[in-house]
């Protein structure tokens, strides 16, 4: 018996990120979207891997609590890590400038955790950690980019799919993970949960 393609209401994405929605659509999935409002403050002495994993799970659980039909809910969280310190989203232009200076001319890590809460309330989790290396970013670009709207909802104050890509010398890991949803880990989690995201009958 063939697996069914996941239908438009078969999965909930607990995220306001248009990039995560686009990445799921790349897999052929059209999820329902539920936006959650959480306190995303890192706890004292909380390691960044624990932090990003906890927030992803909390987002998925919050989405599950709001889901109309108790459908599986996918949550995700992305953090940029410099010197073992989490760079979140900038709250002002000056903060964005500071973050862009921190990543200029060096390598940093990008961690994206995903969590899938199933209809019975159990959960599955995974994390992707990639390494992004920037050449020296000119000051005039930093100030111009920081004054645009793009950095303000991005971890580390940059979008890998935006203008800063011109200064990325290399990326080791998952491009989609740096964007905000690692497709390899996401597809593996869906398979583990028995959720089909493609039509297996086409290969028969």
In short:
The chain is α/β, with parallel strands linked by helices and 204 residues long.
Structure summary, number of beta strands: 7
Assign a percent range to the helix content: 25-40%
N/C terminus separation: 10 Å
Largest sheet: 7 strands, mixed
Uncertain ranges: 1-8
Task: Give me the secondary-structure topology.
Blueprint: E1 12-13, H1 18-26, E2 32-33, H2 48-66, E3 73-82, E4 85-87, H3 93-103, E5 107-117, E6 123-134, H4 139-146, E7 168-172, H5 175-179, H6 183-192
Parallel strand pairs: 1-2, 1-3
Antiparallel strand pairs: 3-4, 3-5, 5-6, 6-7
Helix pairs in contact: 3-4
Characterise the protein shown here:
The chain has helices at 18-26, 48-66, 93-103, 139-146, 175-179, 183-192, and strands at 12-13, 32-33, 73-82, 85-87, 107-117, 123-134, 168-172. The chain is an alpha/beta fold and 204 residues long. It has one domain (12-203): Maf protein. Strands 1, 2, 3, 4, 5, 6 and 7 form a 7-stranded mixed sheet that branches. The chain is globular and about 50 Å long. The model is unreliable at 1-8 (pLDDT under 50).
